[in-house]
Design goal:
The complex is a heterodimer. By secondary structure, chain A is mainly beta. Chain A has 1 helix and 7 strands. The relative contact order of chain A is 0.23. The radius of gyration of chain B is 54 Å and the shape is elongated. The N and C termini of chain B lie far apart (160 Å). Chain B folds into 6 domains: 138 residues, Archaeosine Trna-guanine Transglycosylase, Chain: A, domain 4 (Roll), CATH 2.30.130.40; 123 residues, Methane Monooxygenase Hydroxylase, Chain G, domain 1 (Up-down Bundle); 53 residues, no CATH class; 140 residues, Rossmann fold (3-Layer(aba) Sandwich); 84 residues, Helicase, Ruva Protein, domain 3, CATH 1.10.8.60; 180 residues, Ribosomal Protein S5, domain 2 (2-Layer Sandwich), CATH 3.30.230. In chain B, 44% of the residues lie in helices and 18% in strands. In chain B, helix 12 packs antiparallel against helix 13. In chain B, strand 5 and strand 6 form a beta hairpin. The chains are: A mainly beta, B alpha/beta.
């Protein structure tokens, strides 16, 4: 019984296998879209703002950082649910954004990234010189 | 990427906990968490349930330190569950795990989320309680990029994808395999999906070279893939089969419902009957299998279809045949002799053969049935003899007449593909006989036809060969039937007309013509009683004198058998019946005189007596299927140029025989004292009456020579002499056939002396002495011996 239990858990946890594009843990991310912007929330509680690095490309948002465990000098751990250490996640963007006008702020433990959406309308004629 | 750089910027002992676990260095000493029944592959992360006390301690201690544990699988422990896994049960290769999360429930079970970050080797166990602690070293999972490795990874990915599709593994898994970079990770993930034994999984972990690991995992994946493909194929087949059956069942139910609506009722009664019959029938294995198969088929055919009848008839045929039904042969020799004697007068040769067979049969139970062939003229009782043999041996009797049968299908049946096809006559008759060892009579085997439609005699070859007929396969049945117990008797009039190979298979028994005495006996014993009965007369009212019977035989019949005799006796009985009814008399004794009264003028006179005798006439003897006859050769000469005319519907052989006779005389003219001038000045005519009957054969040669010599020398031939024999130009007399019949004809015609070829002497021995009485036989080698004696002595 025990023996099968271990195997079963192993089989159920395939998703945790690390692929090269992600780190071992990732903070939860929400993404919204309005008429003009793409809004991304990342839960970054306990992470020093200077440790967070955001890079926006045309169709990809990369967020990385590090959460440090601040506890020391304990002699028993009863519960451990918060992930620590380095993280890096690459979030593909569903629409094109204007990289230059991207803004970010940290508010109550959430990292908020606002990215204006660039919508191309019609075709552009290119004149040959 | 940039984050990785950052780690290196801030190294430190305390920092390590918070650093990327991937990059954690392996400490020299680690506490060892035993894993039961599975291997924790590097790169994987999943929750463990820890309930064992020692292990819980281990986790607690690790959590406050560096959160690192060594995870090593252990071999299964036989027998009692022990508290602590003995150190020697642990494998040496394992992984280093990093604890991410932990939850403790009320029962005290730890849910520990661990990811395996490194592969390690346990060098030495340094502590056993409360948990194992050991010195460890890291095993590198670095790979050098090479084309081979790349190809192997690609191959494994492809194979795995196929397998995942067949196994219907989550898509996520395939995606993960595709996105993983480290060949070790790919192989470990693929390997963990194969459901292999602990030992095999542990082996994966122990490979140090990525290529070796990939090879092994790919092999296992391929193996699994093949197994899956085969089992899928099997499943598909089973499913198809089931689908088909279900469909059929459904349609059948529908059909039943429709039938019910139409009021056609259930046809199963019919089938039930057949099934009952099948259960009762004793069948050989092969026939049983065929019937069962056909029954299955029949059940699926609607009763209105023509196929239904075909199939049903076939089953009935098989069930009706006496595959294993035998009658018990009566083996009482004394009784057999009595029956045979009672039914038939004479025929000693055949009776002896039957009794011999019965005697051997008594000694040996599994004797093949003999295959006899009765050859003889019509009316000598061949067919009735068959019946009486059957009665003697207590066998069932069946008879088919082969006269005019010209299609081999009559013997072997038609294939079932033809509508209205039936088994051949052999199988049909066996069904009629109702046993597998009847006496089977094949009448008139010499009158088998044979044309483009087939050759029935060839089909009979198999039936009549004891070495083959135990597996006689009818075209219709297509199951071999054992004919070896059947006693075959065939009859024929002319042995020459039976095809050679067929003749060869049978034991020929010749029945020759009856002699006059035999005919008298047969008439007295059988025919008269039969005719009296047929005309409601009794032996008290009517008695036949022997002389009367002889008169009927001599003056009103000319035959080998007794059919005409019986008919004429019937004629007499009719006349007597007429007289009794009209009140002329109440009883009657039939005398020679009253025979003439009832039968009218004499039909046959003694042949020789009826002739105008003189030179140029000689009496030959001929054989016909109805017995022997006298054959008169007439010769006449007239003015001419020496030509020879032959008339009387003579065949080529007989014409040549006449020419040979003349040549012999011309070449021996001097010796015969014949004036050879005649040959140039006179024409010779040879005629053989009666002109309407075709004649052929060489046996009249002697008579020709005698007739011509008589003509040319002017001497008459004795009237009471008859002769037969073939001649050569040198004057030798060659033997001929049918001697018994010829002699009987001579006796009937009151001939006193008969000239026969010396080599036919043996045939005369067969003739009963009573017949030979009053006739003298001359056996000659040369024609001159005949010429010496045949002429009327000039007195």
């Amino acid at each position: 019984m025990h023996r099968h239990y271990g195997r079963m858990l192993r089989a159920l946890s395939v998703g945790r296998m690390k692929s090269s594009s992600c780190s071992l843990w990732q903070p939860p991310v929400d993404m919204y879209e309005s008429d003009s912007e793409l809004i991304v929330f990342v839960e970054v509680a306990g992470i020093a703002p200077d440790k967070i690095k955001i890079m926006a490309e045309n169709e990809m948002l990369t967020i990385s950082g590090e959460r440090k465990c601040l506890i020391s000098g304990v002699n028993h751990v009863h519960r451990l649910e918060i992930e620590y250490g380095h993280f890096a996640c690459r979030i593909p963007l569903p629409v094109s954004i204007d990289v230059d006008k991207t803004k970010s702020e940290i508010n109550n433990g959430f990292l908020l990234v606002r990215m204006p959406v660039v919508r191309h309308q019609g075709t552009v004629e290119i004149n040959l010189k | 990427m940039s984050s990785e750089e950052k780690i290196q910027e801030t190294p430190g002992a305390k920092e390590q906990i918070a650093a990327d676990p991937e990059k954690l260095a392996v400490p020299e000493v680690l506490s060892i968490l035993p894993l039961q029944g599975f291997v924790f592959f590097p790169g994987m992360g999943f929750p463990l349930q820890v309930s064992h006390k020692g292990s819980k301690n281990l986790i607690d201690d690790a959590l406050v330190k560096d959160r690192l544990v060594a995870m090593v699988a252990h071999r299964p422990m036989k027998g009692k569950q022990m508290d602590v896994v003995p150190a020697d049960h642990l494998f040496t290769i394992g992984t280093m795990g990093y604890i991410h999360k932990i939850m403790k429930d009320k029962e005290g079970v730890y849910q520990v989320l661990v990811s395996a970050v490194r592969k390690i080797r346990v060098l030495e166990i340094t502590q056993n309680t409360p948990y194992h602690v050991g010195r460890v070293e890291s095993i590198s999972m670095e790979t050098e990029e090479s084309q081979e490795l790349e190809a192997m990874v690609l191959n494994l990915r492809t194979q795995f994808k196929k397998m995942a599709e067949l196994l219907q593994l989550p898509d996520e898994l395939t995606l993960t395999i595709m996105s993983l970079q480290n060949p070790f990770h790919i192989a470990y993930l693929a390997g963990s999906q194969l459901n292999l034994s602990l030992e095999e999984e542990q082996k994966f972990l122990e490979y140090e070279k990525a290529t070796d690991l990939l090879k092994k995992v790919t092999l296992e994946v391929t193996k699994k893939l093949e197994t899956l493909e085969v089992s899928q194929e099997i499943q598909k087949n089973i499913k198809e089969d089931i689908d088909k059956k279900q469909r059929e069942f459904f349609l059948r139910q529908q059909l039943k419902a429709i039938r019910k609506e139409l009021g056609e009722g259930d046809e199963n009664v019919d089938l039930d009957d057949l099934r009952k019959k099948m259960k009762k029938a004793v069948l050989p294995k092969e026939a049983k299998a065929t019937v069962e198969k056909e029954m299955g088929r029949l059940a699926r055919i609607p009763s209105s279809s023509p196929e239904y009848t075909v199939s049903r008839t076939f089953i009935e045929w098989i069930l009706d045949l006496p595959w294993k039904i035998s009658t018990k042969d009566s083996l009482n020799l004394v009784k057999a002799r009595q029956i045979l004697d009672h039914d038939h007068y004479g025929l000693e040769k055949i009776k002896k053969r039957i009794l011999e067979f019965l005697a051997v049969r008594t000694l040996k139970a599994d004797l093949h049935g003999p295959i006899l062939c009765f050859v003889g003229p019509p009316g000598v009782g061949k067919t009735s003899l068959g019946q009486s043999i059957a009665r003697t041996m207590n066998k069932n009797f069946v008879r088919i007449s082969l006269g005019g049968v010209r299609d081999e299908a009559e013997i072997r049946g038609h294939r079932r593909t033809y509508i209205g096809s039936l088994p051949g006559r052999i199988i049909q008759s066996l069904k009629k006989a109702g046993s597998n060892n009847p006496l089977f009579m094949l009448d008139e085997i010499d009158k088998l036809g044979n044309d483009f439609r087939g050759d029935p005699s060839s089909a009979l070859l198999e039936v009549l060969d004891p070495e083959q007929n135990f597996t006689f396969a009818d075209h219709y049945l297509e199951i071999p039937f054992d004919l070896s117990k059947v006693m075959f008797i065939t009859t024929a009039n002319y042995i020459e007309n039976i095809p050679g190979p067929l003749r060869d298979r049978m034991e020929i028994i010749e029945l020759s013509s009856y002699t006059e005495d035999e005919k008298v006996m047969i008439a007295k014993r059988h025919l008269i009683n039969k005719q009296l009965e047929a005309h409601a007369l009794t032996a008290q009212k009517v008695t036949f004198r022997d002389a009367a019977i002889r008169a009927v035989i001599r003056s009103y019949t000319r035959e080998a058998g007794v059919r005409n005799l019986e008919r004429n006796l019937g004629g007499i009985c009719r006349g007597i019946a007429m007289d009794i009814v009209s009140g002329k008399f109440k009883s009657h004794v039939v005398t020679e005189k009253s025979v003439h009264k009832f039968l009218g003028p004499i039909d046959f006179y003694p042949e020789a007596a009826a002739r105008n005798w003189g030179p140029g006439l000689a009496t030959g003897l001929a054989w016909t299927p109805v017995g022997g006859v006298l054959l008169f050769i007439e010769a006449a000469k007239m003015k001419g140029k020496g030509s020879l005319t032959l008339t009387g519907t003579l065949g080529d052989v007989m014409k040549e025989s006449a020419t040979a006779a003349l040549t012999y005389i011309r070449s021996h003219a001097k010796m015969l004292k014949i004036d050879d001038k005649q040959f140039a000045q006179e024409d010779i005519h040879v005629h053989v009456p009666a002109g309407g009957t075709p004649k052929d054969g060489p046996s009249a040669g002697v008579a020709m020579v005698v007739a011509l010599t008589s003509l040319l020398s002017g001497k008459s031939v004795r009237k009471d002499i008859a002769m037969t024999g073939e001649i050569t130009l040198r004057g030798d007399v060659l033997p001929v056939g049918g001697v018994k019949e010829k002699v009987l004809a001579a006796v009937r015609a009151d001939i006193k002396e008969v000239f026969l070829p010396s080599r036919n002497e043996k045939d005369v021995l067969d003739i009963p002495a009573s017949v030979k009485k009053g006739v003298s036989f001359h056996f000659v080698q040369e024609i001159s011996e005949v010429l010496d004696k045949v002429f009327v002595k000039a007195d």
